[in-house]
Structure formats: C-alpha cells, structure tokens
Amino acid sequence: MSAIPKHIRIIIKRFTGNPLMQRVMRNSGYIFSATTFSAGLSMIQGILAARMLGVEAFGMLSPITQFVTNINRLTSFRMSELVVNYVGEFSAKGQDRLAAAVFKAAGITEILSSLIAYGLVFFLAPLGAEYIVHDPVAASLIRLYALVLLANLIAESATGLLQYFNQFRTIAIITIGQSILTIAIILMAFVIGGNLQTVVIAYLLGKVSGALATTGVALWQASKEWGVFWWRTPLSLLAPRYRELIRFGVSTNLSGTVNLVTRDSDTLWLSALSSPLQVGYYKVAKAFMNVLVIPVNPLISTTYREIARETAKRQWDNVRYLLRSGSLLSTIYTIPASLILVIFGPWLVCLYGPEFGPAYGPMLILMLGFLATNIFYWNRIVLLPLGLPDYPTKIGFVMAGLQIALMLWLVPLWGANGQAVALSFFFIGTVSILVWKGIREIQRMEQQPAVSKGD
Questions:
Q1: 156-170 mean pLDDT
Q2: Rounded to 5°, angle at Cα 169 from 164 and 171
Q3: Residues 367-385 pLDDT 10s
Q4: What's the sign of the alpha-carbon dihedral 17, 322, 260, 340?
Q5: Are 267 and 283 a contacting pair, CB within 8 Å?
Q6: Cβ atoms < 10 Å from Cβ of 184
Q7: Angle between helices 416-446 and 266-273 (to 10 degrees)
Q8: Where do the H-state alpha helices sit in 165-195?
Q9: What is the pLDDT of residue 389?
Q10: What values do phi and psi take at 275, rounded to 5?
Q11: What is residue 61's predicted lDDT score, i.e. its pLDDT?
C-alpha cells in the first residue's frame, strides 16, 4: 500500500473507509455486474438483430417497444421510489403494519395503472403503427408486445421492496437470467432466419420472465418480513398520511411523464418527424451510451436508499459525503470511457454494419448530455427525501417545452443529429438546475431544527 501515491490512497480510503459508501459500492457491485453482463448481451443481440433485419426494419423495432413502454410510464407512479421512501421510514420506526400497508397500497395502485396502460395500448396500437412506426401492419406487433404490461402488474413496487430490504444480489440474478433468455431466442432466430416478429417475441419473453421473477421474490420477502397474511393489513392505517403519499406518487408520475415526453420518447419523435433510416442511426448511437450509463445506473437506487436513511436522521454531513463520493466515483469511470468512445467510435458503430457509419455523429452529441447525467446522477433523487418530489417535475416541464421546440426545429433538418442536440440540451439544463437546488436545500435544512413527522 505504501507504494501507492498518497492522492490515490486518499481516494481509495474515501470509498472503503466509510460504511455508507461500503454499502453503496457493494450493492452497486451486484447491479453493476448484472447490468454489465446484460449490456454485453444486449449489444450482441442488437448487432444480431440489426444484421438480421437491416437498417429500416431495425429502426422500426424501437418505436414498437417504446410505444408500449411509454404508455405504461404515462400511467405509472414510480412505485419503487415510494416503497423505498415510506416502507423505509415506517420500518425504521418499527411500524411494520404501516410498512406493509404502504406496499399493499403501492401494489394495488400499480395493478390499476398497468391494466389502464394495457387498454390504452390495445386501442391506440393502430394509430401508433400508422403515425409513429409508419407501417399499419405493426399494430399487431404493438399489441403483442403489450402483453408485457400484464406481467408487470406490481413489478415496480416489488423492485422497491427488494431494494429496501437489501436484495440487490437477487435483482442482479434476475436481470442476468432475463438477458440470457432474450439473447438465446434472438440467436436461434439469427441462425434459422427470423424476422421482426421473432425479435419482438424475444424481447417480450425476456421482460415477462424478469417481471414475474421479481414479483414472486418480493411477495416472498413481504411474507418473511411481515407474516403470511401481511396483505390483510387495512389501508385505513395510512389515513393520516394519505395526502403526503398521494403527493409523492403524483409528483413522481408527473416527473416520469416529463421523461416520457422527452428522454423516453426520443426515437418516437425522431420516427414521426424523420424516417426509419434516421431512427436506425440514432438507435445505434444511443446504444453506445450504455457504455457510460450502465456502470453508473446502479448507483442511483443504492445511493437513494442511503440518502433517504441519512436524511431521515438529519445526518447532513453523511448526505454530502454520499453526493461528493458518488460524483467522484462516477467521474473516475465516465471520463476515460468517453474518451474511448470518441477515439474508437467510428469503428465501433460499424460493428452493426458498414451502413451504420453515420451513427458516429449523433453518438458524440449525445455524449455531452450523458456526461452531465452520469457525473451528477443523484440530481433528482436527492430532492425526494428532502420533501421536494415535485420540484424536478416543474423544472422538467419547462425544459421539456424547450426541448420539444428544438426537436420540431432541428429534427426535420438534421435527423438523428438534431434529436441528439435536443436531448443533450434537456439533460444539461435539467441537471444543472436540480444540482443547484439540491445543494441549496441541504444547506437550508441543516440550519433548521429537527421536526418530527406524524406517525
């Protein structure tokens, strides 16, 4: 250890000398291992699908799956975050019945929202096929993929419960299994000569298996923590906190809606305003952003768990430590990874086929926005336990309006490059404001006396 330079030893000690970051890194390690493995398989399955389908058919795949996913997000209340926040609060106080009631309420709400989403997809599929995918025949594929919504009835709530009870290793195993199943089907299709429908079925079966496994394990975990009949807990126990719970759920839903219109619908906007060819380029360009995002994404849920716990205890030094250490850890990875993409990008995009060479341009533009979201990955989650779940939503709506204006102006002119400019603008602007607000709010609350919440 003495041979290691002093500044390197200081950085290592920062990550290993504090129990908070030890837990964050251990749990992130589980998710990172799974997502990295899955990302590798996803990259391979993307290459196989692209070579099997060609640029235009491959460009149709993303609008089909994203149409279903985004309608689901439109009705979703991000129950994983609500479960982590409130099951965590009540469990910390030893109020297990209230914790069980929160999970039950979250599950019921999610079931209703999933069924509504399925109905919307089923009836809107012809419109999505005609005006977004630009192929009326795709309506049947949209309805086929929509079956994933029926498997995801309480998947978000289940994920939140597993996160709070520190079951990140279990989540990682499920993620890996889901990815193996998906690529196995696509590989068979590639060998025997499959088509777009085969790829959609592969994606569907992978998602369904992951959702059912997550739900099953979470229900077992709930029985283990609260007893076999936890589901009989009356929701009336939550009456004193109904307004707060509804505000949290609605705020996270609206925040998700902003992302739905901007980040999560980018290929839909591009498809509607441009052509499947440009979507094909953009999809490949964005696929390489996984190299930046996937190693950092696990930090979001694991850091949020610790931030929520430390905020509840008003340990502001610990909260700042988590934010600084998290950003440092992300930067150490993100900057070198970005340089590798810049240098080797022209060769990497051609792995999908020589015709995908133009994807390098939008890849470089997207990288600017993803650098901001990576380094300050905690920009939104830090505001949730601070009692400001609606602030990111308000900022998001303003930035979304500006982004849509940019898309309407630039996408018809520049295609994939225009879409990349609009998305990076949204990311950089939103992250900058939320980081400023989060730091300012921590400083403000640190100067206030502790105020206990009602049970």
A1: 88
A2: 70
A3: 999 999 999 999 998 998 8
A4: negative
A5: yes
A6: 15
A7: 150
A8: 168-192
A9: 81
A10: -145, 160
A11: 83
Average pLDDT, the chain: 85
For 326-375, list the strands marked E by DSSP: none
Report pLDDT digits (tens) over 11-59: 555 555 566 666 666 666 666 667 677 767 777 888 888 888 877 777 7
CB proximity list for 77: less than 8 A, separation 6 or greater: 106, 109, 110, 113, 249, 250, 252, 253, 256
- Give residue 89's pLDDT: 82
Instruction: Render 215-270 in DSSP notation, one character per residue.
Output: HHHHHHHHHHHH-TTGGGS-GGGGGGGHHHHHHHHHHHHHHHHHHHHTGGGHHHHH
Task: Spell 69-85 as b/e; 16+ CB within 10 A means b.
Answer: bbbbbbbbbbbbbbbbb
What was the pLDDT predicted at 62? 78
Token duo for residue 2: 């003495």
Render 102-119 in DSSP notation, one character per residue. Answer: HHHHHHHHHHHHHHHHHH
Q: CA 293, CA 276: separation in Å to the nearest integer?
A: 25
* 422 within 8 A of 403, measured Cβ to Cβ: yes
What is each CA distance from 428 to 39, 258, 337, 406, in whole angstroms? 25, 15, 19, 14
Side-chain-facing half-sphere of 187: CA atoms under 13 Å: 10
Task: Give the Cα separation of 315 and 303 in Å (integer).
Answer: 14
The answer to whether the CB of 266 falls within 8 A of the CB of 282 is yes
What tokens were used for 43?
Answer: 């990259």
And the tokens for 171?
A: 């989540």
Q: How far apart are the first and last CA of the chain?
A: 49
Report d(CA 368, CA 365) in Å as an integer.
Answer: 6
- Whether the pLDDT of residue 331 is over 90: the answer is yes
359 confidence band (pLDDT: 50, 70, 90): very high
Cα gap 135→148, rounded to integer Å: 22
In the predicted structure, residue 454 carries a pLDDT above the cut 50: no
The answer to whether the CB of 306 falls within 8 A of the CB of 384 is: no
Whether residue 9 is predicted with pLDDT greater than 80 in this model: the reply is: no
CB 135 within 8 A of CB 192: no
Domain positions in the chain = 6-229+236-446
Query: For residues 204 and 146, is the Cβ–Cβ distance under 8 A?
Result: no
Q: How far is CA 59 from CA 1, 127, 278, in A?
A: 51, 18, 8
Q: Which pair of tokens denotes residue 12?
A: 């290592």
Q: How many residues does the chain have?
A: 455
Q: Which two tokens stand for residue 447?
A: 């100067």
* CA-angle at 112, arms to 68 and 77, nearest 5°: 70
Distance CA 74, CA 265 (A): 11
